[in-house]
Design goal:
The complex is a heterodimer of chains A (about 250) and B (about 190). Chain A has a single domain, classed as Collagenase (Catalytic Domain), CATH 3.40.390. Chain A contains 4 helices and 10 strands. Chain A has a 5-stranded mixed sheet with strand order 4-3-5-7-6, covered by helices on one side. In chain A, strand 6 and strand 7 form a beta hairpin. Chain A is globular and about 75 Å long. Chain B has one domain. Chain B has a 6-stranded antiparallel sheet with strand order 3-2-1-6-7-8. A two-stranded antiparallel ribbon of chain B has the order 4-5. In chain B, a hairpin with a 2-residue loop joins strand 1 and strand 2. The chains are: A alpha/beta (about 250), B alpha+beta (about 190). Chains A and B meet through helix 1 and strand 6 of A and helix 1, helix 2, strand 2 and strand 5 of B.
Chain lengths: ~250, ~190
């Protein structure tokens, strides 16, 4: 082997090694308490009482006309990624409250009387301490912040304060509702909507889906729900009825 | 076509910068070390002496909170007491659990550097988790500073960037060297 070929091979090997080292590996984290993974039962849908406001709001930026529609889009983006789904209730009959078995989503100046501090939105779980099964989860966004809904890089308001994107903040909080934690708090460097620091990532990423799959298993679609033109997302597969084959 | 070895070597050097995942992963607005010091009402190194969950009635139902009492080992700012107590939303009482996603949790004996606010709230820690640093003793008996999740902090600029020191393969900073930048930042605060 000539010295030139040897050098070229060495460089190629090093390129592959460096590229492999920079590929973000799965880094998702799940929320635990006392060693128990917090999760919802997969036997029923998670009903969200969306109380962000159905009155028309001007200048949300992304074409949405109400905060309700922004929250609904954020929640339903998690559907069909695993065997757990959100359904949106707008009954308006449930008051916000703790321990009422209703998953309230709303704006407020405090979290049930507790100041937000540095948090922008808070997700709190009630769970069975013996099983880790989540019983209720309320999500509250700080109404003292400036909110809009937009995609892409973070923006600032005219007074120089951060202009928060409710869609990405809500997508993040609904990920918490499902039991996902912050991968970057564990020192991981990965692209994820679940990273603790708000950044330009505004949609669910592969690492987030991997986390969801780890908690709830892969999303299964029964043949009767398959329709012409169906597309498969990353993390989904088709399994034969006898379970022996997977595509 | 022959591909020169130099070009390949150049590609090796540029590979990390070209990878889109690596670019996106570091873009967030951290709470700076200076902000941690400016916003804190109390800064100290302490050991969790008691971790006690309790229920509290709120305007909209019952909440569970956890009171953590620290034995103050080294008072750096805002405290002259040998004990400091803070309350965190969440905990477990009588088989019922309440938890805020990513809220710091404590066990008796945990040694922490604490940057805390006095105002009652969901979480007294400045920057939610950034103002809480784990202290770990290495094999040589030197206390080192880690994030609350156990990631190394090699310099104060790493606060808010928990993966930074690990990516640089640097050792955590000794606890003894954290005092000087805190004192410097406090001097700026008093001006």
């Amino acid at each position: 082997m000539s010295p030139r070929t040897k050098a070229a091979l060495l460089a190629l090997t090093a390129t592959i090694a460096v590229a492999a080292a920079t590929v973000p590996l799965s880094a998702f984290r799940v929320v635990t308490s006392g060693g128990l993974q917090l999760r919802w039962p997969t036997s029923r849908a998670i009903v969200l009482e969306m109380q962000l406001g159905s009155a028309p709001v001007e200048e949300i930026f992304d074409g949405s006309t109400t905060w309700h529609s922004v929250g609904t889009a954020a929640a339903t983006a998690w559907n069909a990624l695993a065997d757990v789904n959100f359904t949106i209730s707008t009954s308006g009959t449930h008051e916000t409250g703790r321990g009422n078995n209703v998953n309230n989503v709303f704006f407020a100046s405090t979290y049930y009387g507790q100041p937000f501090g540095d948090a922008v939105g808070i997700t709190l779980y009630d769970y069975d301490a013996d099983t880790g099964i989540i019983l209720e989860s309320d999500i509250v966004f700080d109404n003292a912040r400036s909110w809009k809904s937009y995609r892409g890089p973070l923006r600032t308001a005219s007074d120089g304060a951060r202009l928060y994107d409710l869609r990405r903040a809500a997508t993040h909080e609904f990920g918490h509702v499902l039991g996902l934690g912050h991968p970057d708090d564990g020192g991981q460097s990965v692209t994820a909507i679940m990273n603790s620091r708000i950044n330009e990532v505004d949609t669910i990423q592969q690492d987030d889906i991997d986390g969801l799959t780890a908690v709830y298993g892969p999303h299964t679609v029964t043949p009767d729900r398959l329709v012409a033109g169906s597309t498969m997302r990353a993390g989904q597969w088709l399994t034969s009825l006898n379970g022996r084959y997977r595509l | 076509m022959r591909f020169p070895a130099r070009a390949l070597a150049l590609l090796v050097l540029l590979a990390p910068a070209l990878h889109p995942g690596a670019v996106h992963a570091t873009s967030y607005a951290p709470v700076s070390f200076q902000e941690l010091v400016l916003k804190a009402d109390a800064i100290f190194v302490g050991d969790a002496l008691d971790v006690r969950p309790f229920t509290v009635a709120s305007e909209r139902g019952t909440l569970i909170k956890t009171r953590v009492t620290f034995l103050v080992r080294d008072a750096l700012f805002g405290t002259a007491s040998s004990m400091e107590s803070f309350e965190f939303l969440g905990g477990e009482v009588d088989g019922k659990g309440m938890r805020v996603a990513e809220m710091p949790v404590f066990a008796r004996g945990d040694r922490r550097v604490v940057f805390a606010r006095r105002e009652a709230g969901i979480n007294p820690i400045v920057g939610f988790t950034q103002g809480l640093m784990r202290v770990s003793r290495d094999a040589a008996g030197i206390d080192e500073v880690l994030t609350s999740e156990g990631q190394p902090i090699a310099r104060t600029q790493d606060i808010g960037r928990p993966g930074a020191a690990r990516l640089r393969r640097e050792r955590p900073m000794p606890l003894s060297t954290l005092r000087a930048p805190i004192v410097d930042a406090l001097r700026e605060r008093r001006r």
